Amino acid sequence: MKSAPLTYQRASALPDILSGNSEMNSMFIAGGQSLLPMLALRVARTDKLIHIKDVPELNVIEETAREVRIGAGLTHAAFEDGRVPDEGAGLMRDVAADIAYRAIRNLGTIGGSVALADPAADWPLCLIALSARAFIQGQNGSRDLWVDDLIKGAYETSLRDGELITSFMIPKLPAHARVGRCKLTKKKGAFSMSHAIAILAPGYNKAYISGVDTRPLLLRSTSEALARDGAQINLADVIAADLSPYLDAQSYEFRMIHAVASDAIMQALSK
Amino acid sequence: MSAYSRSETSLIGASLLRKEDARHLNGYAQFIADIKLPRMRDVAFLRSDVAHGYIKSIQKPKGYEQQIYIHGDLPIENLEAGPELAAFRTSPYPPFAHEKVRYVGQIIASALAPNRAQAEDLVEEIEVKIEELPAVVDVKKAIDADAPRLFVHWPDNLFIKARVDEGDHHQLRSAPIRLHRQFKMNRQATVSLEGRGVLAYWDKRADQLIVHLSTQGPHIMRIGLAQALNVPQSKIRVIAPDIGGGFGGKNRLMPEEIAVAAMALRVDFPLRWIEDRREHLMASVHARDHYYDLIVSADHNGRILGIEGDVFIDAGAYALWPTGSFMEASMAARNLPGPYDIKNLAITNYTVATNKAPMGPYRGVARPGACFAIERLIDEVAHHLSKEPIDIRRLNMIKSSQFPYQTVGGYRLDNGDYQTCLERAIDLIGFNTIRDYQKSKASSEHVRRGVGFAFYSEQSGHGTAEWTKRKSRIVPGYESARIKLNSDGSVIIHIGAQNHGQGHETTLAQIAAFELGLDPHAINIDYGDTAIAPFGFGSFASRTIVFSGGAVAKASRAMADKIKKIGAHLLQTHDQSVFIKNGFVCAEHGEVSFSEIARAATIRQELLPPDVNPLLEFTLTYEPSESSGVFSYGTHAVVVDADQRTGNVKIIDYVVVEDCGVMINPMIVDGQISGGVVQGIGTALFEEIPYSDNGQPLATTFADYMVPTASDIPTIRIYHMLTPATTTEYGVKGVGEGGAIAPPAAIANAIADAFREINIGVNETPLTSQRIVKAIMVAEASQQEARRS
Amino acid sequence: MTAIKFTLNHEVCVGDVDDRQTLADFLRDQCSLTAVHLGCEHGACGACTVEMDAQAVRSCLVLAVMCEGKTITTLDGLADDRIMSELKSQFHLHHALQCGFCTSGFLMMARDILRRNVSSCRKSDFVREELAGHICRCTGYNGIIKAVTETAHALLATQIKSA
């Protein structure tokens, strides 16, 4: 299982990447923990790999009273170890520590996870739940957008050719925000079958889930009911209402995923 | 530090720490992929991505024709595989596909290049046109009259259909209880962490083909290679390096290995093929894949009267050399009675050819499937009668007074105490405490606790009687050992078996040391090279401690006798008045060291007694006095917590009470059981290669194929009973496979117990969370139906 | 092809690598460090684990070219390491290996978790979770878990800290 021939270029500054090289088919690589297996299996191919991990803009760590700005090249381990400022409820740290295995986390990056947009990935779900924005650089300049708009579907983002994510801006959660999370996997560290995150705070009640649609799904009725009823919520019914457009209510998927959503929300409510 | 993990005085039963550990702990081991030879090239294979089809054309890339091989480029004889039974249908299994491809992953061509990456690049340049045919994927539909046929000269897709008929099954029809159930154990791979590998070259100096092969049986593979390549065995040397696990998956001669050896005869440099994980999951030995359709008959008390029905084995597209896979069907049927006193067995078994990778032996072979079927049937009968499954087991278990017990499956269960074994497991798992716990929990709770049991017996150390009964074309009826005392008194023993993780370098040294009064560290156990090791069959079927242990004991005793004879002569006394101790032959008045005796026997033969030949070397064979096998056995008891919403299963406690007779090294026995149990948990909960309707394997990397890791298993509590075998040296029995036999049954029973109020069907492995949730939903729906009507 | 230079097992290593070549293959083939084993080549089994800039990484998921300027350590470079020496003794004592193919990967990862969190490594549940990404087919894991927890106890008892 060896990859097809390719050439490697290490970028140390953003202009190196953005100068463009339209003669060759090229891909960006940061951690490589998802891309290298795909290349080894020859299910992905490229003529050129541009290594972007060392680009300074991808490694920023900035914190203000209201938000956290973090480089797309930061590793999951950096979050796990608390070397990255928190969004206020320890959610990002908790999500990061539960991705794959430590050796993978030492190299895998948050930007890589979002850019790949695997429907089972954890960072897209987490950043969307936190209403994060993504900062993008391309040949034609820079732009920023909600991560919710960046992730379009399975392995599909709104990144254009030659664009890359440089950083994310995460608004800090209000004080006393309560967060719950539940991930269902075949075994520890494997890709998730479904993953739910619930955030409860004054003016911010959101429950999101992956493994239902091709991208993280807002449990809309559930989120509204949480805002309205709090702990009095009729959880089973509202989750069912949110899932039924996507899943047959008599199916085993429905039952399992309903439990994932329910557990995440109950966890938040119990705090 | 002590060389023992527990304080021991006798070598038999001593938990001596392993002699083979140092090389692995320090990185000096040499596995097949670690061998580097000058000018070595790598081989990659073009494999069929179609399950069934006619090969219309193969186009080698221009300029690289010399580096590509296909069928017909090399003279390779067909190896006939399968039992020596006229009824067993054979068909050639050419290493390079000829005319047809019959499974996804089958080799069509090979490419040679300076390294593997370049060989894979070259494979991509080969153009193949295949006219696709409908794939045969379902084991039952495969034998329909109108099923597409894998082999046009066969009347149907059956390797063989056979029947086991014992007792009077007609009387079963009037049994008060008759339950009809189906069980399925899905296809999986063996997943040794090291894949297969072969490195071959023609050694011009030695005028021999040298084949380094990751194998469990170098001598047998040499026989196969000699036949396939039409080269005398004296011109082939097979060398097994360190082996990174086998479990049966490295005990057949496979097409890649034959292909590489054949290519090596043609080229001027060493050739290597190292299996990657995708190849392993797609095209290495596949296993399990059983389907049972059974009727169990019982009386009102739950006494099992008989089992009838059909067993289907999905054997894949070809028979693997030398055995084929009829053994799987035959053992599945014959093991159905389990440890129970059942007098009637009427089973038709079908070994079916399908468009999947060929089936081979994997730890336990057919027994995990048979155990799953009978142990689930016991629980089903219990449920039907509203009795405890342990009570049905107690009622039916073979009693100690009945040994040796001839089962209706044709096994002679030698000895043991099955009833005590069961009772100890019931006690050790805390059965009553679990029942109390279950009662204390509200039915509205998501997580349900369940306890399940399964009993297994493991035929081990079986020889001529059993293999001839199976009509094997190769009968592993003995093992050999060559013992040598060097002129300085150091000892080396060569064996014909093949250690691949079981600790034979340690256990066999313990036996030799015991017989020779030496320190086990003074004895080298060596194996693996057909030029050096005496002929033997390799390590599989839980045979090594019985056969090689016996051979080493026998050879060591012969050596001890000669040493004493020479020693007595040197001490000028009678043979009968000397004894061996700590490397010396001792008499009342003096002692002489082994090294002095060895010196006399090797380089100073004038010192020898007149009737004694020089050299201290013996090559002997050994077979136990009863060759139908000695049976280890045990009870597995498991407690699970299962979430009725997600189907998630957590194993809370796992108890094994087992009896493998005398244990040479209890630490190593525990290791074998522990490893076997976790592989059994893999079969029970995780491992599966599903196939699409057109024969595509759907799990070809570890992203989809799950194996248990440390967080999936609890501490496994292992307890031993000790009933020495009466027909083997020291009373040993084999133990390598037993751990893997019972877990699927025990875990399924535990899950069924967790949901016993709604009587879910847990009859298909792996019991993934999806299958469990589906089963719960089906059971809930029929309960609601029942309430309505 | 790209020229690379990095520190390997405390010495300078220079090489000329095919850009697509993994660190695992470079270490095994060009440096003859065959204790690095390939069990899957897609980062799922842990057998190829090495240390790169003091972090555990799966060398099949690193390109050799990416190692420019880095410090790589394999099992062979840890012969004098105190944590590794204790681990090896405990692996031997608790029968934590059978065929040995997964052993170097487990040793490398176990050392990493002990370095970062020796105190928590006294608990077998913690060790099970930390080692959940490594596959062993022979031992059933319990010997490995025991070896690691016992190493933690031994290290804390003698208060040895790794360099």
Distance between the termini of chain A: 47 Å
What is the strand content of chain A?
A: 25-35%
Low-confidence stretches of chain B: none
Number of helices of chain A: 11
> Mean pLDDT of chain A, as a whole number?
95
Overall pLDDT of chain B: 96
Account of the protein in words:
Chain A has 271 residues and is α+β, with helices and mostly antiparallel strands. Chain A has eleven helices and 14 strands. In chain A, the strands form four sheets. In chain A, strands 4-5-10-6-7 form a five-stranded antiparallel sheet. In chain A, strands 11-12-13-14 form a four-stranded antiparallel sheet, with helices on both faces. A three-stranded parallel sheet of chain A has the order 1-3-2, with no helix packed on it. In chain A, β4 and β5 (67-71) form a beta hairpin. Chain B has 789 residues and is of the alpha+beta class. Chain B folds into four domains: 6-29 and 478-622, Aldehyde oxidase/xanthine dehydrogenase, molybdopterin binding domain (Aldehyde Oxidoreductase, domain 4, 2-Layer Sandwich), CATH 3.30.365; 41-154, Aldehyde oxidase/xanthine dehydrogenase, a/b hammerhead (Aldehyde Oxidoreductase, domain 3); 192-283, Aldehyde Oxidoreductase, domain 4 (2-Layer Sandwich), CATH 3.30.365.10; 385-464 and 628-788, Aldehyde oxidase/xanthine dehydrogenase, molybdopterin binding domain (Aldehyde Oxidoreductase, domain 4, 2-Layer Sandwich), CATH 3.30.365. Chain B is 27% helix and 24% strand. Chain B contains 18 helices and 29 strands. In chain B, β19 and β20 form a beta hairpin. In chain B, α7 crosses α8 and α12 packs parallel to α13. The termini of chain B are far apart. Chain C contains five helices and five strands. In chain C, strands 2-1-5-3-4 form a five-stranded mixed sheet, with helices on both faces. The longest helix of chain C is centred in the C-terminal third of the chain and has 17 residues, at 142-158. Chain C starts with a strand and ends in a 5-residue tail after the last helix. Chains in contact: A-B, A-C, B-C. At the A-B interface, α11 of A face α2 and α18 of B.
